[in-house]
Specification:
Strand 4 and strand 5 form a beta hairpin. This protein is α+β, with helices and mostly antiparallel strands. 36% of the residues lie in helices and 18% in strands. It has two domains: 168 residues, Creatine Amidinohydrolase, Chain A, domain 1, CATH 3.40.350.10; 260 residues, Creatine Amidinohydrolase (Alpha-Beta Complex), CATH 3.90.230.10. The strands form seven sheets. A six-stranded mixed β-sheet has the order 6-5-4-1-7-8, with helices on both faces. The two termini are 38 Å apart. The longest helix has 24 residues. The chain binds glycine and manganese (II) ion (2 copies). Keywords: Aminopeptidase, Hydrolase, Manganese, Metal-binding, Metalloprotease, Protease. Belongs to the peptidase M24B family.
Amino acid sequence: MASMIPMKEFADRRRKLMDRMAPDSIAILPAAPERVRNRDVLHPFRQDSDFQYLTGFGEPEAVLVLIPGREHGETVLFCKERNPEKELWDGFLVGPEGAIERYGLDDAFPIGDIDDILPGMIEGRSRVYYPLGKDPVFDNRVMDWVKVIRSKVRAGAHPPGELVALEHLLHDMRLYKSAAEVKVMARAGKISAEAHCRAMKRARKGGYEYNLEAELIHTFMEHGARSTAYPSIVGGGANGCILHYIENSAPLKEGDLVLIDAGCELDCYASDITRTFPVSGKFSPEQKALYNVVLDAQYAAIDAVRRGNHWNHPHEAALNVLTQGLIDLGLLSGSLDDAIASEAYKPFFMHRTGHWLGLDVHDVGDYKVGDAWRQLEPGMALTVEPGLYIAPDNENVEEKWRGIGIRIEDDVVVTKDGCRVLTDAVPKTVADIEALMAD
Ligand code: GLY
Ligand code: MN
Ligand code: MN
């Protein structure tokens, strides 16, 4: 399926990457491999995010090669050849000619010819960029191509002197989302928000966690988002305190909260939303008190997402509100400063307030530059997801608090004058959630 990102943007990205590469260098990037699930059944294919970013080409068994300054074309794709018999079983293949016509590559060859052609392209280039150390099989293939050139030095061949990780250049580019990328991410956020609304409306005691997971998948699929961005988390009651709970098989109980952390993937872009709501449609006083602390922390963190602030500002803002809330409710004692300095909040809030978001749910990009937190700049996309988790066996707190797990998560993009929340179509105040569930 064609990408929602215009083809010209992929060409611009390749150009930009080549402009950042050292003179006399070459970049080699493989597509994701297909993975066997069992015997003849494969896992659904998901393109490698870096490969997707530079090509939009959705097939396995392909290799992109960027050769700045090459006379016969700087961007080259090796891919599967068209094959009517194979296509009858497995569907349409683009083929090398199609890669040039439809994907805007300068040159393309059958993947079966790569061992004959690629060493000649590497020869004379002093530096090779590739995903160094990511896949031992591909590491070995690169070494094999280099060895072919080394075997010919006495005939005057020039093997490359440096093998360098491609990620440093590419992942910094991926951190800044274009208008077209934000548009896809906003659409993914909207679909996921609708899915959360549907799950909230259909929650009932006696149902199972997987019933709500089914509601999420229904809405994702209905809108053409054929995959989740990560396994959905649907945790009723104390299961909401297990951060990566994906069993999703327990019954939902009257009086419990249910925490849903789920987002669809659309055109390879992730969305990532968490909402926590009462199975019965009504929060208990304790649930409401803790919920409002998390919500205030999330508002404070979102408010801190603006240019001029650094990566850790939203986390610090959330941490202050969460810790003060725990003190006010009697779950922690002492002063705010002491509780933060001693990390007394850690048993209740043990994760970060967010992560970069993009083609990967935990997207690429450095969080620090040297020793300093990275400054937030327009186009950076991130999640804001504070939480409080009162372990069911925490004997340091009154029993009424135990087993309550709450997280509230939205996706935001830094703009010129603040940030844009991409996932605000799903309610998050106590009043709005209760109203939606009563509807
Ligand atoms: N769902 C993964 C995360 O929130 O980071
Ligand atoms: Mn997240
Ligand atoms: Mn999440």
